[in-house]
Amino acid sequence: MDYILVFWALLATLFTWGLTALGAAVVFFFKDIRAIVLDSMLALASGVMIAASFWSLLLPGRDIALEIGQSPAVVLSLGFLTGAGFLILVNRLIPHLHFKDSVHSGRKSSLSRSVLLVLAITIHNIPEGLAIGVAFGSLAKGETLAGAVALAVGIGIQNIPEGSAVSVPLRREGLSRWKSFMVGQFSGLGEPVAAVIGAMLAVGVNGILPFALAFAAGCMIFVVVEELIPEAERVVVGKSRDLVSGFAIVGFVLMTVLDLAFS
C-alpha cells in the first residue's frame, strides 16, 4: 500500500479542519451573525460541493473506470446510489440538529444541543473526508496531485461556514466564546478520520476506485439536497432568496475555477 498517499490525505484534511476552526473563531468577534449572511455562506458551500462532486469525483471516476475496463455507467451509478443511501441511513440513525432552527433529526436523544450540533457537522464531514481521501488515493492510478489539492482547497473553503454554523448558535444562546469555538472546531475532527479510511481503501483495494469516487459524490450531493440548500433557503424570501441562490452559483463557479486552474 502506498502509505504516502494516505499521509497526504491526512495532511489535506488537517488543513480543512483548520478552516473549520477558522469559521468557528468568528465567535471571538461576533455574538451573532445576520441570517442572510449565514444563508449565503451555506449556499456558497452547497455550490462548491456540487461542483466538487462532478469535477473531482465523478469525472475522474469515469476516466479510471474506462482505463481499467469497467462500465462507467454501471459502476458510477451504483457507487453514487450507495453513497447517498449510506448517508440516508446515517442521517436517520444518528441524532443531530439542523443548523438554524434546532429541528431534531435521527433517533430521539437526550444529548445536549452542542453535542447534537457537532453530530450534524460530523455527518457532513463524512463525505467530505472520504472525498479528499479517495481523491488522494486516486493518485496511485495516475490522477494528478493538482486535482486532489483543488478538491481539498474547495472543501476547506466551504468548511468555514460550517464551523460558524455550529459556534455562532451556541454563542447566541449564552455559551462562552471559548466553549463555542471549541465545539465548533471539534466538529471537523471526523474529516481526517474519514479521509484516512477513504485513502486506504482507494490504494489498497484493487478496482474499487471508480466506485469509491462515486460513493463520495453520492454522499456529498445528499448533504447538499438534504441539509445545505434547505437550510440556506428556509426563511429567506424575495430578493434575499435570489441572493442566496446566487451564492450557490458563485460556489459552483469558484470550485470549477479551482479545479481547472490546478489541472
Précis, in short:
The protein has 263 residues and is mainly alpha-helical.
Q: Layout of SSEs?
A:
Layout: H1 3-24, H2 35-67, H3 72-93, E1 96-97, E2 104-105, H4 113-137, H5 145-172, H6 177-186, H7 190-204, H8 209-232, H9 238-262
Antiparallel strand pairs: 1-2
What does the radius of gyration come to?
Answer: 18 Å
Query: In DSSP terms, counting alpha (H) and pi (I) runs of 4 or more, how many helices?
Result: 9
Q: How many structural domains in the coordinates?
A: 1
Shape: globular
**How much is the average pLDDT?**
85
Residue runs with pLDDT of under 50 for 5 or more positions: none
**Relative strand content:** under 5%
H/E element order = HHHEEHHHHHH
The number of distinct β-strands equals 2
Read across the widest sheet, the strand sequence of neighbours is: 1-2
Description:
- The chain is mainly α and 263 residues long.
- Strands 1-2 form a two-stranded antiparallel sheet.
- The two termini are 25 Å apart.
- The protein contains nine helices and two strands.
- The model has no long low-confidence stretch (mean pLDDT 85).
